[in-house]
Task: inverse folding
């Protein structure tokens, strides 16, 4: 990457940032089977939400804020996305937005953990994990606007009840229950009654995690360390939705793990999952349900990233440009600190700069390789995002 020299009209704090090792994980698939959503740190330190086509090409970044994003969930009509912000802590909250990244709304706002949200099949409710009056999570539901918050489990002691998900018919909720260092999958009615263990309670440290279902609701896939014990690697298994007829479908090597599996909603023979290598790198893979035809998707080094142009609050001149262009921020954004980033087509941040609340423009002078870039502006700490495409000519 060439060295950059640029001059700001106004005094700005400058922080050079370069591309990092990429991790992709937490895949969710649109109900029409054409798109997938996932989290990635491909061009920032934290994890953001990205969208691509179903084969991992045409990657677009949908979010931009300092908080880490996890567990995207797509509504049954394919128009909305849920996700968790921040890791498991009192700062974790739940957000909803359109599947193009617009209309971001915070649904929870408190000093307790709220996370791992999932839509009901009819799109009217959300099931999620949260603390009640203790720091051990329970299962809750709420409307998609964040109202009518209801706690539906209340298990005494230090048990963890988390990561809930509706079955495809919307008649049951599956979730993870952990007690005394083991973790297994439990099914219950929508009001929290009639709990049934779908996978048996395990020995200490053995876990069953993150079930997902075929569209017809007859099969599930999940990850487990059943064969490797306490702290062992995770493999993927399929089973009937009552927990019978386990079939092992992965064979991880070394200390690699397969996790967060989901079925293709249009093809029960295909699934997607997160593969964690023993080098602590996460990638998204697809494979046939019999464990064959495994391939990696959304590859950072070659897929590239584009950004959705969201509004006209950025004026670039000239565009196309060579070694100089000016950026003017228009609209009612004065009084807010602004973070400006220039990203290349591989999703790498070429530079980032912070403008103070009274600054609305600056000039760039530098030596950029020809190609497509994206100027991205984040207003304040939780405000809107503006994105504009920039072409650099020979």
Result:
């Amino acid at each position: 990457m060439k060295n950059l020299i640029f001059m700001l009209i106004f005094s700005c704090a400058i922080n050079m940032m370069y591309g990092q090792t990429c991790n992709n994980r937490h895949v969710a698939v649109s109900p029409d089977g054409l798109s997938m959503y996932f989290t990635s740190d491909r061009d920032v330190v934290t994890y953001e939400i990205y969208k691509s086509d179903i084969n991992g090409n045409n990657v677009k970044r949908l979010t931009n804020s300092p908080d880490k994003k996890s567990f995207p969930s797509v509504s049954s009509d394919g128009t909305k996305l849920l996700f968790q912000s921040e890791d498991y802590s009192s700062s974790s909250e739940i957000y909803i937005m359109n599947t193009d990244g617009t209309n971001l709304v915070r649904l929870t706002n408190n000093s307790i953990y709220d996370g791992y949200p999932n839509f009901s099949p009819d799109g009217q409710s959300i099931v999620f994990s949260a603390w009640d009056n203790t720091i051990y999570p329970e299962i809750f539901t709420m409307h998609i606007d964040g109202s009518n918050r209801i706690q539906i489990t209340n298990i005494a002691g230090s048990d963890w009840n988390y990561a809930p998900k509706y079955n495809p018919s919307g008649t049951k909720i599956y979730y993870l229950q952990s007690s005394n260092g083991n973790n297994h999958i439990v099914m219950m009615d929508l009001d929290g009654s009639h709990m049934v263990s779908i996978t048996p309670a395990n020995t200490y440290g053995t876990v069953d995690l993150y079930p997902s279902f075929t569209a017809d609701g007859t099969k599930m896939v999940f990850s487990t360390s059943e064969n490797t014990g306490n702290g062992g690697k995770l493999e993927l298994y399929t089973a009937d939705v009552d927990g019978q007829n386990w079939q092992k479908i992965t064979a991880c090597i070394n200390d690699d793990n397969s996790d967060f599996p989901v079925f293709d909603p249009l093809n029960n023979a295909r699934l997607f999952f997160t593969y964690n290598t023993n080098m602590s790198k996460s990638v998204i893979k697809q494979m046939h349900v019999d464990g064959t035809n495994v391939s990696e998707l959304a590859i950072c080094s070659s897929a590239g990233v584009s950004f959705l142009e969201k509004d006209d609050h950025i004026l670039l001149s000239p565009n196309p440009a060579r070694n100089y262009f000016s950026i003017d921020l228009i609209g009612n954004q004065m009084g807010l600190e602004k973070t400006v980033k220039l990203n290349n087509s591989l999703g790498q941040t070429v530079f980032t700069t912070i403008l103070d609340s009274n600054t609305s423009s600056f000039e760039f002078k530098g030596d950029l390789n020809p190609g497509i870039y994206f100027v991205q502006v984040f207003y304040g700490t939780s405000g809107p995002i503006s994105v504009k495409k920039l072409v650099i000519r020979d």
